[in-house]
Amino acid sequence: MMESNVNEINNNNIILQQQPAMASSIDIDNQQQQQPSNKWHILEGLKNGHQPSDKKTIEHKPPLFTGYILKRRKRPLKGWHKRYFHLDSGILSYAKNINDWQKRKLHGSTDIGLSVISCKPSSRRIDIDSDSGIFHLKAKKEDYNQWVHALRTHRLARQHEIAFGSSTGNDNHAALASITEDSINSSFCLQQNRLKSPTTSSGQSLIQKCDKLSSQSSLLLHNQSNLNVGKIQEKLIKLSSLLKFIETAPANASACVPCIGDLETYKYTKKSSKLLRFHLHRSKNKNKSKDHDQNGQPKFSLQQQSFLSISHPSLTDDDLTTAAAAATTACDNQSITTMTKNVAMKDFVQLANEINNNFRQLLKSIQDINYNEKQDDDSEERSKSIRISFDKSTVHHDADDDGDGGDEDVFTSSEQQQQQSPYHRTYSMDETSVMSISEYHDAEDNVGFLGQPNRSSDDYNSSSSSASSSSIEDEDDESIITDFSEDSHKQNNCCLKSEQLLAVKRRTRLPSVEPTNDISLWSLLRKNIGKDLSKISMPVTINEPLNLLQRLCEELEYCELLDMAAAMIDDPCQRMLMMAAFAISSYSSSYYRVGHKPFNPLLGETYECVRDDKGFRFIGEQVSHHPPISACHADSKNYVFWQDMRVKTKFWGKSMEIIPIGTVNVVLRPSKSHYKWNKITTCVHNLFKGERYVDIYGELTITEMGNGLNDQLTCKITFDKASYWSGSQNEIHGMVMNSRGQIIERIRGRWNESVYAGSRCIWRAGTMPDNYEAYYGFTRFAIELNELIDNEKPWLPPTDTRFRTDQRALEEGDVQRAETIKSELEQQQRERRKMQETNGETHLPLWFSKQLNGNKNDEATDIYTFNNQYWDSRANHFDGIDFVRLW
Ligand SMILES: CC(C)CCC[C@@H](C)[C@H]1CC[C@H]2[C@@H]3CC=C4C[C@@H](O)CC[C@]4(C)[C@H]3CC[C@]12C
């Protein structure tokens, strides 16, 4: 039922007709109880026929409900803690305990009318996917049913309130009076904030200002308790109440009538709107005309309806009808409401002005405090003697590097390092910041060189054969390091000494713009709440024309940072900073890439990427199918990089969490230091409606081993969850610690923009190419990854992704062909798997070997290491290799 309705919406067939009243909320409870208890299911939202007069169905003011629930800690895998939750008027807020709640020390709060709630009775889990994040909750046995019931009734009442407003003007006043402090945090504000609607009217900008102010105030309340902010808080509560009232009351006489007409507009815009065809990007003013009427006034009523319908997929097209009908009825009370609303708006403006002035004063005091603190910091920093010994302007490397590196330990001084460096070009960047090299290419013609495919195989043999002989038998990290150090001079030759260097002009745009996507993501995902999605076959239009192996290679976009780190032989701390910047930079491309997912590589698929201009060669292979695991290895004169990764994907109702499991390894050849770090979680919010955005959170810890010194450094980087409270997004902060736990450097920044160590910018993301929104949000480097260069073709194995036909068809914009081929290829893969199973065979990767971790049940911790045979074999045209035919 739900599905068909959603489909109808997606097919633009909104049926404007009344439906008979649905079951009461108690019936819905019963329905819910009939669901299998060991499965996740979603609490149904406002249903057909839930009309304002339908008093039986909607409890207008469900009773306050409070109590303790276990809440999963924000950092993944860190257990549960007991928290006090308070559910009033559809707003769920929580604090550490009841005392804190009474003192208003809230940890968070959300409007559950705007959330998707899913439950799993067998484990008493309740997950709330809200605009302020996902709450994973677990109730006590005796409380579970009551919580579910309370959440359901509050949610219905709240949705009802949002859709229809309170039934009379008086009710609105009552609601206004009864709004408690926590409604300050209501995601009503959050929603405004997230949607970042264009500010065309003064009212709208005030609303945004109010959002900002209330978040700032909460920060101040937490951090500057000695400042007199009580009064401001009071005013903010009032302001927030007014805002809520203004928002929920019908906008004006003309806004009432077009509600139904707007549904038509909605149908139309749905097809054309970039937002709704799941092509998402961060531009803020795109849908200006759609969100505003001719006079530039925001279409509040329409926004609310369409928001409800998509954000709450459980609301059907009929609900829209009902909402529209209710809005029309509300016109009868028009004059009363409009009058009250005008008064409220005046009050709002006055109050906002007062608060503005108050904040100015506060801001000034804080600036004074900050200024004093900064003075202290600066003097401390000046006194620090450790400085980057290497000067960015000295990274001028000559192209005539013969790379034969006769000496064992060639990297003993930074001067020598410069001579040995792989660069065939000169950096001309400001400060130490690193931009995408691809971007640099754009500016300077012919600066990139591709290793000639028919280079002498000796170049490779010398490096990899020796490595392979030792690394296969070496199991522990230490021995791997020894291995690298021993052949480091040989590895220096790896892909840089080419007899004939060929200037390659790489492409700067994809062959075709991304296709429009009108599939119903919701109908695909709704049955899979809480599940790992790797097994679901998705339509090809959800994909971008890159696969996961290529995305792993994309993590090397800012590999210059590794070269810089390698150059800092004598400065472990600065080296660690560069490693940190590199680890952070690998997430930056995700910012514009929320609209699509990469292709899942087929089992045995490989991807190589030889980049002489960047100084590395990369090889990746899909080594396991269930679970899907990708392994990769890259080496350069300065470093070796490898990782294996499996991705767990969880869908929570409105958002999707992507949890990569695996460890990234980098060995810097000159200092022989080995760095390891974990991966962190990516979450795509607003999958169905609103501005889809990606949040990356968790703690990334880089450890250094084997630098030959006793004092081994650790760098802890925290990727903060986007927070309404602090108004922050994409922020990271971290510190480098010595083995005694003393902090020796701090970093901060944003994973999508830049990283600073003190006031020094150590990395900055490259600018995006023109018109990137129409091209999957690809960076310049990403555009280059799937390009099949003629000279390379004869050297690639048949399993190389660049020969994959469905991906190529998608890249060329031929969606239908891509779709047909994709399902054929997946079908063939299933058949191969079946065959293997019946023959009792197991798949063995060609280029990586599995090291069992000893725990049979935990495949996630199996490690795949490079067997060092790929490049040798490639030089011999993969002679004797029996490739699976993948396409
Ligand atoms: C339904 C669709 C549209 C949702 C889109 C999901 C996208 C955003 C997901 C699917 C697979 C994900 C990627 C899987 C693996 C990695 C490698 C990791 O080291 C960095 C994050 C990164 C690169 C993820 C980024 C986000 C990602 C691309």
Secondary-structure map:
Blueprint (H helix, E strand, L loop, with lengths): L1 H9 L14 H10 L6 E2 L22 E8 L7 E9 L2 E5 L2 H5 L3 E6 L4 E5 L4 E6 L2 E6 L5 H21 L4 H10 L8 H9 L6 H22 L6 H19 L4 H4 L1 H15 L15 H4 L8 H12 L5 H14 L3 H50 L30 H7 L16 H7 L5 E2 L6 H17 L3 H10 L1 H4 L10 E2 L17 H5 L17 E5 H7 L5 H8 L4 H14 L11 E3 L6 E6 L4 E9 L4 E8 L2 E13 L4 E6 L1 E6 L4 E6 L2 E5 L7 E13 L8 E6 L11 E7 L5 E8 L3 E4 L2 E5 L15 H6 L19 H7 L3 H24 L9 E4 L11 E4 L3 H6 L12
Parallel strand pairs: 11-12
Antiparallel strand pairs: 1-6, 2-3, 2-8, 3-4, 4-5, 6-7, 7-8, 9-10, 13-14, 14-15, 15-16, 16-17, 16-18, 17-20, 18-19, 19-21, 20-21, 21-22, 22-23, 23-24, 24-25, 25-26, 27-28
Features:
887 residues, alpha+beta, eight-stranded antiparallel β-sheet, six-stranded antiparallel beta barrel, 28 strands, 37% helix, globular, disordered N terminus, binds cholesterol, lipid transport, PH_8, sterol transfer activity, cell membrane
